[in-house]
């Protein structure tokens, strides 16, 4: 039966791809909000809050009984929400509308992510397949992010500061295509649910929060997303402030270069997650994750200082950018495998009927980590400067390394 779900698997990839563009355009829209809507860094960082808090709240309250609603219906609802939100952003053209857009995207993504993560267990046969599909779907998500860094600048025109809003017609179109493809796809969702009624479903999710395995895991997920989203959200602004742009370049041209350079991070994250899906079939996930954390710390310690202090000529195009400036975003290659492998390890250790409530907790704490990470980095950008802010990611990286080996022992114990 699971071999006949190829169409549905493709739909999972497509839906995640669309939401990758929408969710992670927040860094670009933060930059646009500062320049076009006249808000400061701290105000602009609230877009991350408007995105992540609805994800956390909706996931917490609906994840436990989402199997009753149906994963397919939930995803169709999510795609309809973002279709109308994109159109509203085009006509609204204000910081308030941007906040509304990301709130709508947050609500929709909560439905999408819980559905996708829960459905993975239904269309895979064992832990290795689960690890592989989880990593590859998250890899496609990163390629969607990379596309955003080229898609948004493609609509930037120096003589029209509002031209970038036309990208939302493209995003509305992609949402409509995803909706129609999913609607036409058959999928057997099974019948396993956490409890016999809604109150028992919610109770199952609350009980999960008391397990030591879950406590350590959600702490790990929180730390990782804090690192990843902090870097990803503020990398366009970092590029714009650290690189030596020519005074002859317009602000729009500087933004285009800064945003497109950030695609290196997203591409490296995508490649890293695809490779992780292959490696996880042969190497224990814990050693992959441990190696990746230590490599990420090494890049922050030894590569980032060279990027900040690199001598450069006045930049007028991509060809003028010093080679060293391209190296820091490669941290994504090592950050990439951590999140999907942690998620897959914990979900594989739990029975299928707990996958939906467990995914709800994953989404909640990931959203909180993303919000806090973006706010902290935004505060650091304002107080200590762009040159220093990213060095503080070493703290959550160190904590994550400690939590990793605790998590390995707990998942092994859960399976016995």
Q: How would you sum up this structure, described in words?
A:
The chain has 416 residues and is mainly alpha-helical. It has one domain: Up-down Bundle (Growth Hormone, Chain: A). Helix content is 75%, strand content 0%. It contains 19 helices and no strands. Helix 8 (127-154) packs antiparallel against helix 16, helix 11 runs antiparallel to helix 12 and helix 14 (285-309) runs antiparallel to helix 16. The radius of gyration is 21 Å and the shape is globular. It starts with 5 loop residues before the first helix and ends with a helix.
Secondary structure: elements and pairs:
Layout: H1 6-23, H2 26-36, H3 41-44, H4 46-62, H5 66-69, H6 71-92, H7 95-120, H8 127-154, H9 167-183, H10 198-208, H11 212-242, H12 251-261, H13 263-279, H14 285-309, H15 331-335, H16 338-349, H17 355-383, H18 386-389, H19 394-415
